[in-house]
Structure to design on (444 residues):
């Protein structure tokens, strides 16, 4: 029998999975959309909802590229509001460790944990891109190789702040309704290569002690950071074989750090496309990919690798006959494609060979080489596949990323989750109240 399968639900407002043109996609800034999403996930007994973060609007060649985003509201404000309209589901948000300060983040998460009754989760991410740093007047002050050094110091400082209150530092005086604080309550000092801070932390720890810590890096540095300090890893897209390798590697690293068996949890992102039959789901998945990668998107993606303006090329025509620009270029200050494909000329050669062999246009090639839906099929097929991934040593569960909200997410909650509940791998009712309890983690 498949072991317990953990489920998170990502509100996909800052990534290119979402199909904005689909009528089933609603607002991504109206609070009602967030509340509906969280309530749906809670009715389906998900472990948590998950909010991504975007600290700058995406741009290309100096112009805002609005194909995959519509508003970037602040995560803490949204999560705090969700705490008031939900009861059990965990509330996890991405908060950057490069452009924030430990005191502020620790106080915000302690507050969220109190407001939610112990349901707070923090996805610790790093940022090295100069174009994001400009929003904070820091430019590219932090070299890329140092970002996880700062993240580790940041997390250590936050944990020290949250631990600066002892269990007996707050005593309720029931006769007066006041609180009595001991003289040294909240005292802290943290000094390392990144931070030199000392003072009094203002907020006692919440019910969990500290929030559940997620980490989303897949690089060797990210894996090492997660293995040493995270409670759970938000893995990126990939096939079963890739996830098995990732899972085994992270567990090896965690064991080397003396972590308890079974930690950290590995929860990859899972996209999906459903249908009444497997054949219908495959047809629908093909339409979804065409909607996710329209002509403009295909050209923009190729520009990230070619590092030059390709606007004159037909997305339904052949790949460019010019070579990528290596080194500095005019396309963008920091692009995902440049990071993912560090050898642009070699990448271009491989893609030309693939396009010629299969007769692919630019748009078709981009669809071919970029991520497809992780799971495609009838609800029973998708449920089977999810169980197979967990049984096959690829993960401990999934963070579901729908291509439309509320449409596709509601469909998943209505059709797939009940099948997982019938198999006993997803809870039918919440047993605990905190996010740590949902994930089988000890409070600390």
């Amino acid at each position: 029998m498949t072991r317990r399968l953990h489920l998170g639900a990502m509100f996909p407002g800052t990534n290119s999975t979402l199909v904005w043109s689909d009528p089933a996609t609603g607002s991504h800034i109206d609070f009602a959309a967030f509340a509906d999403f969280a309530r749906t996930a809670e009715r389906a007994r998900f472990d948590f909802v998950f909010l991504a973060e975007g600290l700058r609007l995406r741009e290309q060649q100096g112009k805002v590229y609005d194909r995959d985003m519509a508003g970037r509201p602040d995560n803490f404000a949204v999560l705090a509001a969700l705490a008031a309209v939900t009861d059990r589901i965990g509330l996890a948000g991405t908060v950057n460790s490069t452009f924030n300060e430990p005191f502020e983040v620790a106080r915000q998460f302690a507050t969220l944990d109190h407001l939610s009754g112990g349901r707070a989760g923090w996805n610790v991410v790093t940022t090295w891109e100069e174009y994001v740093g400009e929003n904070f007047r820091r430019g590219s002050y932090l070299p890329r190789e140092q970002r996880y050094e700062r993240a580790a110091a940041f997390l250590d400082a936050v944990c020290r702040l949250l631990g600066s209150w002892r269990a007996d530092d707050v005593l309720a005086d029931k006769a007066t309704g006041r609180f009595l604080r001991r003289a040294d309550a909240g005292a802290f000092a943290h000094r390392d290569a990144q931070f030199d801070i000392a003072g009094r932390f203002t907020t006692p720890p919440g019910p969990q002690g500290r929030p559940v810590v997620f980490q989303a890096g897949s690089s060797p540095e990210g894996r090492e950071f997660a293995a040493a300090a995270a409670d759970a890893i938000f893995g990126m897209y990939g096939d079963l074989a890739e996830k098995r390798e990732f899972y085994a590697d992270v567990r090896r690293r965690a064991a080397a750090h003396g972590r308890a068996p079974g930690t950290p949890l590995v929860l990859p992102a899972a996209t999906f496309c459903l249908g009444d039959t497997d054949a219908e789901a495959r047809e629908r998945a093909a339409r979804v990919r065409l909607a996710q990668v329209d002509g403009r998107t295909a050209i923009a993606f190729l520009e990230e690798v070619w590092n030059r303006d390709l606007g004159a090329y037909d997305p339904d025509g052949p790949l460019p006959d010019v070579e990528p620009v290596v080194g500095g270029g005019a396309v963008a200050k920091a692009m995902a494609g440049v990071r993912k494909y560090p050898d642009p000329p070699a990448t271009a050669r491989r893609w030309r060979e693939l396009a010629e062999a299969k007769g692919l246009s630019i748009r078709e090639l981009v669809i071919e080489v970029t991520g497809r839906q992780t799971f495609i099929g009838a609800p029973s097929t998708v449920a089977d596949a999810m169980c197979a991934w967990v049984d096959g040593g690829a993960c401990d569960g999934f963070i579901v990323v729908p291509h439309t909200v509320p449409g596709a997410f509601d469909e998943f909650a209505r059709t797939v989750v009940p099948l997982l509940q019938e198999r006993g791998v997803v809870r039918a009712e919440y047993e605990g109240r905190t996010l740590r309890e949902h994930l089988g983690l000890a409070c600390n």
Observations:
- The mean pLDDT is 87.
- The chain has two domains: 6-133+203-276+372-438, 294-369.
